[in-house]
Each structure stands twice: as structure tokens, then as C-alpha cells.
Amino acid sequence: MVPLSRVQHIDVSQGPVERAFGVARLILHTAGTSHAVVVLPGLSRVKAEELRDSIRVRIRPEAW
């Protein structure tokens, strides 16, 4: 589990083998040095992008 306050950056990634099988990885970069990257492999590209967008909405700082 990663608190949303620790998430700094989110990526969706696919290597050639993943692309061939239609899967992707959601990668969360977090604050801190210990376990600073959390990877969720085996998601469909669409699902990974939906999760990325959903998390971005929640971590985006509010306008001043």
C-alpha cells in the first residue's frame, strides 16, 4: 500500500513482449529512497492508463 501523499510520478510502460501480449505496467514513483518505485505488472494498457489518470486526479495539488 502506498499513501497518495507519497506518490510523486506515475508511468505506464510496455516492453516489446508486454506489447505482444497486450499488457502493460503501472509504475508509481514515491517519495523517499526505500522502495521508491512500486510496479503493478500485467494490466491491460487501457486499465493501466485509467488507474494512472485516476491517481493523478487525486494527487494533483489544488490551485491556490
TrEMBL record:
Residues 2-55 form the YdbS-like PH domain. InterPro entries: YdbS-like_PH. PANTHER family: TRANSMEMBRANE PROTEIN-RELATED (PTHR34473:SF3), UPF0699 TRANSMEMBRANE PROTEIN YDBS (PTHR34473). This is YdbS-like PH domain-containing protein. It comes from Sphingomonas cynarae.
